[in-house]
């Protein structure tokens, strides 16, 4: 089955329909109380970038992979995070553990492949070998090296938890760091994510794109339904209503529902019974740097990972998740088409605009920037970021 029903109860779906029908009838959208003014330096300030990596990304959980990318024991995947490059390894007990991708001997990069399957990892520089659980297995020519305690020289480990189909990581090997996805998400948001059953999906394709754009610029683009008619004329603009969304904050995070123009087929129906499942996109925004878009037949997962050591570099990660693995040529052609559409929207349209934005905000005399009342999700993001950095360890 390609299309699936919206995974929410009748009352929730009727609420989506009522709100969207009302906005369509009145030409409105959900609104924040007032216009928000921000300092353009949030997109370029090196000192702020250092604080974000130390005080935010070094403590809070972010997504590094989908569990289906590590299906079997001994499977590994290398993920670049804001502070560390980590190796995720599926253990014999089925759990995933994560290790900083650096040999403890002289600091060489331990794993050079992006993914694969191994029982142990051997450093290409001097041959030190590590088991999949991160323990130091062997020191080459050990009698000549000198006396060291191998039990203290295992790979540096970062906290990992697998939940809702994803592998989450706290990007720090400091001994006091813990991970608790349930607490991070909060009960309401976790219930909404759980309904998507993302652990039943499989990753059809994943792509990494390294760009010289601040990660918050990219996050802003996906929180914003105001630009569709202008930035996406060549792709999705004919299919989606511009500047028309509902926004529901859920603790730190939030859920946005957007209307496809095909919703006009059911607009005259009773919202309590209107079948809107194929006519809306439900987006979950996970603070600080991720979005999950539920399309009628698949999920699109976007992760905006700040690059280490720079205020503007970002690794943009894109994934398409499908309910069933693609095994036939027809299935592969369908998801390849969706991937190409996503590439066209992001790479050929969003990135072009956002590269220009990043250059423009470096101008000296631009003054503050403004988020309108209609950019309510963006306002939530920027207010949350400011509160999180003002009150570290509470995170908004």
Structure description:
- Keywords: 2Fe-2S, Iron, Iron-sulfur, Metal-binding, Oxidoreductase.
- Its cofactor is Fe cation.
- The chain has 396 residues and is of the alpha+beta class.
- It folds into 2 domains: 10-56 and 182-390, Alpha-Beta Complex (Naphthalene 1,2-dioxygenase Alpha Subunit, Chain A, domain 1), CATH 3.90.380.10; 63-179, Rieske Iron-sulfur Protein (3-layer Sandwich).
- It has helices at 10-26, 46-57, 142-145, 181-185, 187-195, 215-223, 228-231, 329-360, 376-390, and strands spanning 36-38, 62-66, 75-80, 85-90, 96-100, 115-117, 120-122, 129-131, 136-138, 157-158, 160-163, 166-169, 202-211, 240-250, 253-260, 280-286, 290-294, 299-306, 314-322, 369-371.
- Strands 13-19-18-17-16-15-14 form a 7-stranded antiparallel sheet, with helices on both faces. Strands 6-3-4-5-10 form a 5-stranded antiparallel sheet, with no helix packed on it.
Keywords:
single chain; 396 residues; alpha+beta; Rieske Iron-sulfur Protein; 7-stranded antiparallel sheet
State the CATH superfamily name of the largest domain.
Naphthalene 1,2-dioxygenase Alpha Subunit, Chain A, domain 1
- Under the CATH scheme, which class of the largest domain? Alpha Beta
Identify low-pLDDT runs: none
* 3D shape: globular
Determine Rg (CA atoms, Å). Answer: 22 Å
Could you give the order of strands across the largest sheet? 13-19-18-17-16-15-14
Number of helical regions: 9
CATH topology of the largest domain: Naphthalene 1,2-dioxygenase Alpha Subunit, Chain A, domain 1
> Based on helices, strands and strand pairing, what is the structural class?
alpha+beta
Major sheet, described briefly? 7 strands, antiparallel
Approximate helicity band: 25-40%
- Estimate what percentage of residues fall within beta strands: 25-35%
Count of β-strands: 20
CATH architecture of the largest domain: Alpha-Beta Complex
Write the element-wise H/E pattern from the N-terminal end onward: HEHEEEEEEEEHEEEHHEHHEEEEEEHEH
N-to-C span: 40 Å
Number of domains: 2
Cofactor: Fe cation
InterPro entries: Rieske_2Fe-2S (IPR017941), Rieske_2Fe-2S_sf (IPR036922), Ring_hydroxy_dOase_asu_C_dom (IPR015879), Rng_hydr_dOase-A (IPR001663)
GO molecular function: 2 iron, 2 sulfur cluster binding; iron ion binding; monooxygenase activity; oxidoreductase activity, acting on paired donors, with incorporation or reduction of molecular oxygen
Protein name: Rieske domain-containing protein
